[in-house]
Amino acid sequence: MEFRHLGRSGLMVSEISYGNWITHGSQVEEDAARACVHAALDEGVTTFDTADVYAGTRAEEVLGRALEGVRRESLEIFTKVYWPTGTGPNDRGLSRKHIMESVNGSLRRLRTDYVDLYQAHRFDVETPLEETLRAFDDLVRQGKVLYVGVSEWTADQIARALKIADEMGFDRLVSNQPQYSMLWRVIEAEVVPLCEKEGLSQIVWSPIAQGVLTGKYLPGRPAPAGSRATDPTGSGFIGRMLDDELLRRVQELKPIAADLGLTMAQLAVAWVLRNPNVSSAIVGATRPEQVRDNVKASGVRLDDETMRRIDEVLGDVVERDPAKTVSPAKRP
């Protein structure tokens, strides 16, 4: 396993992070989840990403139990706040009230005294940005949070936050967590250039495009039983990629992976790690062998010719429009 700095901070993270978005607490049983976590640890993964909203807070609980007994100083545990975790009007968003209550809930579920990175899961248009950033800064001062970041924010939103932090003397953001893959490159136009200039890095989710880039989804064929496309908790994200022409192009990547001695998944993860602004690629798994396969992408460096071949195959099925974002216009 290789490691990279998170932004301009001194924190090192593993190139491959383990994430439990729709697996722990919902898609797989706890024994399988624990096996996946320990497979990641065995392979040198030290960075684990979750969120309070995943599986209705259960994902944090499962991860906390799975990591129990592991030396805390050897781990980087990331979680997030924003989405509803209750039915009340203050059980959501980035208000000071919700942030303070949510971090305490996350720490309790994760069985830890602090999280290494606390992330604003989306931008909250209904809360003053100064309020959110002051709450984050207070958590850093309290020692409950070591670093702060965001997830799926636009370049303009990140720039505004950095300006306020500089003016008010708050700890600066160190990272953004966007969707990024060969097929989804919307951060390249605006977010990455801003982050490179300002010292933030990307912790990317869905580098394998929800499994599409493994090649297991075939054009004109139904999705394999038990795959993410058949799971209602994750099918909404993958549905837009199940286009026959896109799937046909993905199949044409197989010879490129084979020439390099890589699996399709390893090629996809290595592709995002070639971007110098990416600190870590988040992978999920339902079986330990998936973890062991994906982590082999760490240390793989794709050359210019390989990148050219990939672009030639994918052509116009790649999404590059920075206006395309999963961020909501307002709180749910």
Structure overview:
The chain is of the alpha/beta class. It has a single domain (3-210, 265-301), classed as TIM Barrel (Alpha-Beta Barrel). It has 12 helices and 10 strands. It has helices at residues 30-42, 58-67, 96-110, 129-142, 155-168, 191-198, 235-238, 244-251, 254-259, 264-273, 288-294, 304-314, and strands at 3-5, 12-14, 16-19, 47-49, 76-81, 115-120, 145-151, 175-177, 201-204, 278-283. The strands form 2 sheets. It has an 8-stranded parallel barrel, surrounded by 4 helices. Strands 1-2 form a two-stranded antiparallel ribbon. A hairpin with a 6-residue loop joins strand 1 (3-5) and strand 2. Helix 1 (30-42) crosses helix 2. The radius of gyration is 19 Å and the shape is globular.
- Shape designation: globular
Give me the Rg, rounded: 19 Å
CA-to-CA gap between the ends?
39 Å
Beta-strand share of residues: 5-15%
Q: Which CATH-level-2 architecture? A: Alpha-Beta Barrel
As laid out across the biggest beta sheet, the strand order is 3-4-5-6-7-8-9-10
Return the CATH class.
Alpha Beta
Largest sheet properties: 8 strands, parallel, barrel
Protein name: Aldo/keto reductase
Domain NADP-dependent oxidoreductase: 15-313
InterPro entries: K_chnl_volt-dep_bsu_KCNAB-rel (IPR005399), NAD(P)_OxRdtase_dom_sf (IPR036812), NADP_OxRdtase_dom (IPR023210)
Family: Belongs to the shaker potassium channel beta subunit family.
